[in-house]
Write a structure and sequence with these properties.
Length: about 350
């Protein structure tokens, strides 16, 4: 019996040693995999980019998104060391271009510049072909700008007061253009309708360029757009600036009064733009793109250029932009309900 106990004890010690040895081997193996993955991630981050980077604009040429990214194009290419290709993919209130990026290869070579439509569309459309939260990585907030309300100089009204009076005496006779359903111009116009108690007909276009063309021609009554897009037409006298949503007058168009000055401080629909990547892009690449944009935005020449166009440069981390996107999406969802804007099916 004693001899059996000795053998059992020796067997237990041997089994324990083998178990500890196998555990040690598994720890070493796991550590090696982690180290290998770390080196691989560093290699990806260090080598990126090795070819041109494409940035999708979900609008046609001439709008705020297009103006911003083309203004930054050369400086960004200089910072990243590769060419930046800007591609316009308009349609379906930015959904076509946005969905294209959502379904692109998550390698960091296809990015998306977005504006208010990205934040508002989840509240406006019953179904989207992508999930705004799960299918994208917020990279950086680029710029912000107030919205400016414009009308052709051909129109019978010459200021905001006259426009509102005419709208009240002729319900549903006046119209407003927008760059598409859910865009900043659409939401600003709906906000004006609620605040001023007027009724206007919405005429959506595939981008700010066509919307501006028809506004110039007097085919629609008003248009809310960016200061940069409005500036040359206001200065030439083709377009009248009726009001701007900022707290103070814009330096680029100081002759245009604020809505607060005109007695409508609640019309405050400012617009933001930012960069997104498809979900799955390695974090090292996300960080490298974020850094490149921050470097570009902080350069004196880029700050001056964007300011001249009527934009306020932003920048910051991916985490900061993620927080801001969540906050703005929730805020615009409340405004959609308040304005009783019906989602499109």
């Amino acid at each position: 019996m004693f001899l059996g106990a000795v053998f059992t004890h020796r067997y237990d010690i041997g089994a324990m040693m083998r178990s500890r040895f196998l555990f040690l081997i598994s720890v070493i193996f796991s550590f090696g995999l982690l180290l290998q993955n770390s080196f691989a991630a560093d290699a990806i981050g260090n080598s990126y980019p090795t070819r041109p980077v494409k940035i999708i604009v979900p609008y046609g040429p001439g709008g705020g998104s297009d103006i911003i990214i083309r203004a930054m194009q050369n400086k960004l290419a200089e910072t990243l060391g590769q060419a930046i290709i800007v591609e316009n993919k308009p349609g379906a209130s930015t959904i076509l271009g946005t969905d294209f990026v959502a379904k692109s290869t998550p390698d960091g070579y296809t990015a998306l510049i977005v504006d208010m439509a990205f934040l508002v569309n989840p509240s406006l459309f019953a179904k989207l072909p992508y999930d705004s939260q799960k299918d994208f990585i917020p990279v950086i907030e680029l710029v912000s700008t107030p919205s400016i309300m414009l009308a052709s100089s051909k129109m019978p009204f010459k200021n905001l007061k006259e426009f509102i009076q005419l709208a009240k005496t002729s319900p549903s006779k006046l119209s407003y253009a927008s760059a598409g359903f859910g865009t900043g111009g659409h939401m600003a116009s709906e906000m004006l309708k609620v605040v001023a108690g007027i009724d206007l007909v919405h005429v959506p276009y595939k981008g700010a360029g066509p919307a501006m063309t028809d506004t110039l021609g007097g085919h629609v009554s008003i248009l809310f757009t960016t200061v940069g897009a409005a500036k040359p037409y206001v200065e030439s006298g083709q377009i009248i600036g009726l009001g701007i949503t900022s707290e103070k007058r814009a330096e680029a168009l100081s002759q245009v009064p604020t809505f607060a000055e005109l007695g409508y401080p609640a019309v405050n629909a400012n617009i933001v733009w930012g960069i997104f990547l498809p979900a799955g892009v390695p974090k090292e690449i996300v960080q490298k793109i974020n850094t490149a944009f921050n470097v570009s935005l902080q350069s004196p020449e880029m700050k001056q250029r964007l300011t001249e166009l009527g934009f306020t440069p932003a920048g910051g981390s991916s985490a900061q932009w993620t927080t801001e996107v969540t906050k703005l999406t929730n805020n615009w969802s409340k405004i959609v309900k308040q304005a009783n804007i019906k989602p499109e099916q």
